[in-house]
Amino acid sequence: GHQYYGLFAAPKKFRKKCLVLTNEGFGDYSNLTVSKVSNGTLKEVFSSKKNRIGTLYKMITLILGMKISQHEYKVMGLAPYASDFETNKAYSAAFKDLFTVKGYGIFLKNKPKDFFFHFKKKLADCRFDGIAGALQKTVEETMVAWIKSCIKKSKINSVILSGGVAQNIKSAIPISNIKELKSFHLNPSSGDSTLSVGGCYYATHIMKDLKIENLKNIYLGPSYSKKEIQAEIKKLKKNKKIFIQKIKNNKIIVKKLIEGKIFGRFSGRMELGQRALGNRSIIADPRNYETVKKINNQIKFRDFWMPFTPSMIKKHSKKYIINKKNLDCPFMTKAFNITNYFKNIAPATIHPADLTTRPQLLEKKHNSSYYNLIEEFGKKTNVYCLLNTSLNLHGYPMVCSPRDAIFTFNNSNLDGLILEDYLILRR
Length: 427
Prior knowledge:
The protein is an alpha+beta fold and 427 residues long. Helix 2 packs antiparallel against helix 6, helix 4 packs across helix 6 (128-154) and helix 10 (251-258) crosses helix 13 (368-381). The strands form four sheets. Strands 8-17-16-9-10-15-11-14 form an eight-stranded mixed β-sheet. A five-stranded mixed β-sheet has the order 3-2-1-6-7, with helices on both faces. The chain has a two-stranded antiparallel sheet with strand order 4-5. The radius of gyration is 22 Å and the shape is globular. The mean pLDDT is 96. The protein is built from 14 helices and 17 strands. It has helices at 2-9, 53-63, 72-78, 84-95, 117-122, 128-154, 172-176, 195-206, 226-236, 251-258, 290-300, 340-345, 368-381, 402-410; strands at 17-23, 32-38, 41-48, 99-102, 105-108, 158-162, 183-186, 242-246, 263-266, 280-284, 309-313, 336-337, 356-357, 360-362, 385-390, 416-419, 422-426.
């Protein structure tokens, strides 16, 4: 599933010649594979069940008092806050020389008795942030060494990474900087949530006579009719504390965003996976760092250390992110270092500890209505991006239906809700 999703969801140029690498926590017959691709045909050349990168991340998440197989992203967000001293202390105590890379495989150099009590004991004198920092350092070093080794052994320098570990977006920066690596791609939601998509790609591939299209967008969820939207609007009109107006153009939305308003945006089909890409998003002005505090404390009620991300128009992104290999990132799957210019103009969308960002590089063909909104904001501010985070309350699933969106609006301090062609505001 991960292999075929990795290959066929990626841009078609990768089908000519590339490596498809999968890396995950559990897996069935394997939790690490290496496959060579030539002219659209995938051939697995290595598989292993001895890879423990994903297992380690899960267990350290648990040791840090967070939920296994859910909160690994929080550990990744925490890691950059650790000082070098705390990171190196935890690294030396538990992770140094843990893994080794040989050929296509990642192996344990010093195998612990187990992956919970062993590390809990080793890390007993280490601070929580240092543990997160050391874990991330270990993952990045190992992934870079593994990918370098795979390139060297196969003599193929174009790589697709898939499986749960590929969701560690921070690793994308050192991986992208591998000198031997020419091209690198990460699909959205590369963990188990897209195994069904990989299965469909595999079935289509073996049937031979069917054309296989790559994943051009991730808006694969449900949409709702005008009639369904209007039925919800009709119910809301009974609430005297709410003001509803029809949206004629983006000018009113942009005006209020510049005033500091924070809106939920519900539009078209829902996104598949963990990343909100404009259709079920909370949006705000990226220039005001106070927005981060407001969203965290009054709307999302989320962990204070987690950063927010930008949706930016791709053609302006050279001014904002450092992307020397011109890697594409339409689905928020990679972190990037930023320019000094972007640091000054969009502080609300930058990780405050390591000054990285995880952008959605948006083209008009991906989502024209969202693109037009950001473009209008850019015309007024000369900043062609918006702060974007998922439209949900902390601990709740992402908004799917109009009723979900109104529930989130009613149970948070969102200033307004864009519900298709309607703008809902508090009086």
